[in-house]
Amino acid sequence: MVPLRDVVSSLYGAYRLAHFDAKGMDFLDRTALGALRSFSAAVILAPAYLVLMLFRLGDDAANASLSNFLVVESIAYVISWAAYPLIMDDLSRMLDCSDRYPAFISAYNWTSVLQMLIYLPAIAISESGVFVPAMGEALVFAATIAVLAYQWFVTQTALGVSSFTAAGLVIFDMALSMFISGAADSML
Fold this sequence. Notes:
By secondary structure, the protein is mostly helical. It is 81% helix and 0% strand. Helix 1 (4-18) crosses helix 6, helix 3 (40-57) packs parallel to helix 6 and helix 7 packs across helix 8 (163-186).
C-alpha cells in the first residue's frame, strides 16, 4: 500500500494540476514504482464508483440481481482502470514520449480522484430533482466539460505532447470508457 504522506502529496499535486499549474507534477511520484502505486487511487474511488453506477443505472440496477450487478460492475471497474494505461504504454512509444509514461500514469490515476469530486456531486444534484431536468443536465454537462479540460491539461503536461494530440488522447479515453460502460450495461 502507498504511505499516507505519498497519497496526500499526490492528491495535492492533482489539486495543483486542477488549477492548471504544471508544477503539480512535482508532487507526484513520477517513477515506474510511483505509477504502479498510483493505482491505489482505484481503491480510494471504489465506493464513489459504486454510487455513480447506482445513479447511472437507476431502474436497470433494481432489475438486475445484486450479485450480477456487483460482479459485472467490479469487472468493468478493473478493466476501466487497466485498459487505458495498457494502451497508453504502446501509444506513448508511438508518440515518442515513453520516457514520460510513468509520470503520465501517476498523474492520470491520482487526478481521477479529483475528477470524481467534480463529477459525482453534479450527478447527485442532477438526480436529486432539486433542479428541473434541463438544469440538472446542464450541471452534469458543465462538470463533464471541466473534467475533460482537466484531463486535457494533465495529458498535455505529463506527456509533453501538443494540444491537439492531448485532445485526441482524451477523446480516445472517453470513447474507451463509454465502450466499457456500455458493455457492462448490456450484461445486466
